[in-house]
Specification:
With about 850 residues, the chain is an alpha/beta fold. The chain contains 23 helices and 36 strands. The strands form eight sheets. The protein has an eight-stranded parallel β-sheet. A seven-stranded mixed β-sheet has the order 11-17-15-16-14-12-13, with helices on one face. The protein has a five-stranded mixed β-sheet with strand order 4-7-2-1-10, with no helix packed on it. The radius of gyration is 30 Å and the shape is globular. About 50% of the residues are buried.
Amino acid sequence: MNKITRIVSLLLLLNCFFACQSAPDWNGAVDDIYIDWGIKSNFTAEEGQFEASFGIENRSQLTLGENGWALFFSMSPRGILSTQNANITHLNGDWYKLTPEEGFSLSPGERIEIPYLGIEGVIKESDAPMGLYFVFYSEDGESEEIVAVNNLEVKPFIEDQQRLRGTMDEEAPYSAESQYESNANLVKLNKEDLFPIIPTPYKVIEGDGEFSIDEKTTIGFADGLSNEAEYLGEKLSSLTGVKFSSQAGTTDNQGIILKLANIEVNGKKEEAYQMDIDQNGVTISGTDPAGVFYGVQSLLALLGNDAYLNPQLPLSLPFVAIADSPRFGFRSLHMDVVRNFQTKETIKRTLDIMAHYKLNHFLFYTTEDEGWRLEIPGLPELTEVGGQRQHAKSMYEPSVHPGYGSGPFSYMEGKHGSGFYTKEEFIDILEYAKDRHITVIPVLNFPGHARAAIKSMEKRYLRLMEEGDTEGAEAYRLIDPEDQSKYMSAQSFKDNVVNVASASTYDFYLKVVDELTKMYAEAGLELKKMHSGGDEVAEGAWTASPQAKKLMEKLPEIKDPKNLQTYFFRTLLEKLADRDLEMHVWEEMVLLKDESGVYSPNPEFVGKKVVPYIWNNMFDYPDLGYQLANMGYDVVLCNVSNFYFDLAYSNDPEEPGLYWAGFVNTKNAWAFAPYDWFKTTYKSSMGRIIDREEEFKDMVRINPDAKDNIIGLEAQLWTETVKGRDMAEYYMFPKMLGFAESAWAAEREWEKEADLVKMDQSIAKGWNQFANRVGQTAFPRLKWWNGGYNYRIAPAGAKVLDGKLYANVNFPGLQIRYTTDGTEPTMTAKEYTGPVEISGEIVLKVFDDTGKGSRAIKVSPKNWELRENK
């Protein structure tokens, strides 16, 4: 080595040494960076805006400068109007980026506030930024170090300006007193007078006496009912620890007999059953196996609290004769597993408790913008790309970027952004549902809400192009690569609509349907019902697509790109014709838009096995569902003001959930009149009390001869704010009990009452009775079933008057326990039985008979005086 070479080598080594020494270790430093976030006010100079602020405190030894880093996060989508000290940029969906402005410097020991102004009020802790992470860039801007943020504090929502959505919000601020007033008309009833079966059977004749189930009791079953007998035996064995035998055939010496019979109850044959319990035992007769199965569920409910609180033999059943059938043949729960993933075990738990409450359809939402959750043979990218969320360099990458707090890396511990069901797992779910008489309806949501599929197929396209397979790459591609359309979806996506002018889009759809069909066949089923979404296609889609323009030139009757959605669905139905599917859709799919954006019902798909789902009963066109039913469509009602389980129970900032359409509790799900939903739509999305007679006087009503076109009801669980199984169950229970009553039980007398004052009085009486049944008979079963469900128990309502504390609960029969020393009450704390003299702070907590409790609340005379003075 010559002298010059040695000098050059030495210089390179020195340069590398100093560069390596000076490279900051951000991976360790971020643990010493503390971030807080809070809402300052929803009452800003302009209505419908909010002011919030990030605080960043640098306790590390490194300086955050004016370049070289960005802070990424997820946040309930809101438009950003202005910022100070940094820039906040909306990237796509709920994905945002905070970057330093020129001159930014945050040295060790310093703190900086970054206030910003955005659109739409924010009142929930679950709205706070989530999944924060830093990305640090080298000078060339290419290499990056990604570090998740562990230190985030969400500041409490204390002031009314933080707890209300602005001057338009007419809800009362959440407080213990507001809940006390809400519960004020509820009265506890005698448990002995409460019938434990939910939903309520059509006809019940109670006898005098009890039949005991003991270790000698056998289950006899007729041909075709082995599944129902096995199910009952497993539940009884799980409850008692004793194995119950079942025998084919029905003889007089068997304690429980399951059989088929020609039964009609309330004009219904399908799923109808009769149950007779007397000194000879239990006989459950059903028109079909499903009817027998629902009789089994009623038997399990009849066992009562004692059986579930202290499970041991013998088990007592009251003498009774029940004749029962469902009001609606379609009783469904929708579950979104895309926004946040749920495990196979969670799905099976959900299916089993659905079956107990006699629901018979499950809309399994496995495809959406934010993910693709089902393995499809032959298209591995759908789960390799669409099944996981992780940091992307930009929204244009062929990947699914972070969302809903999923963070920068796929499969992060405690996160729910990544995951999918293998083919075998999906078949297992199908078989499990089949045994419980539940039809699983798969979803492939097109033409909007399709981002995960689009990005997955772009990854496939690039792979095959690199392999030189141009023809294979073009197959199943879902975009027009020259499309320059600008739009923003309801969830703030800018790239989630497929190319409806390309044959490859339809080929993709058919490929997925055919693979689903094979999976159903492996589960011993036929794929008969499919949901194709069709909702929320954004204004502006296809407006700058060369392929769409060319299509419209060939079809001049399509005068506006908006109606390419109708073209898509028409074409899809034609291509699916030989598969004989009943296609379920959101209401938008069977509507037409004129040039001004006004919707009108489209009669084109009447009589073509198309079933629209109606969610909108509050906004621009609240009578569209009745218009569609009158037109001849079979419709499913999913009314947002009653059945959207993802909407928060209340406006309590600590109560998670969404509220774009208001708030939904168990009573909302119970108090629903399907043939006149206007009279059970009480509030606007902003809490304004609706004058139902005046506001809905010009609305289209259901024609008497079209009532049968309302085939059923569905509850929705979208999961933007749902993190894991416990949260999913908390959102569902006890709302599902109210929904089940609306879907199964016979028409309530109050539904027929035209006088709204009298109707509301009748509803109040009926709700008091049902609320007692929930509080006194339902919770112990939920605590036992499958090891226990995470049902919600609401905090106590409370007020202070003349130095006394008054408290109540939303489900009579629950207990209130309290302490005066500041500790959190347990089941051994003093029980509230009436007004209590109060001189200092009291802590209250609600419990059910199992010991499961609510969140604790604190009440003191001082707080009340401050509130009253304010």
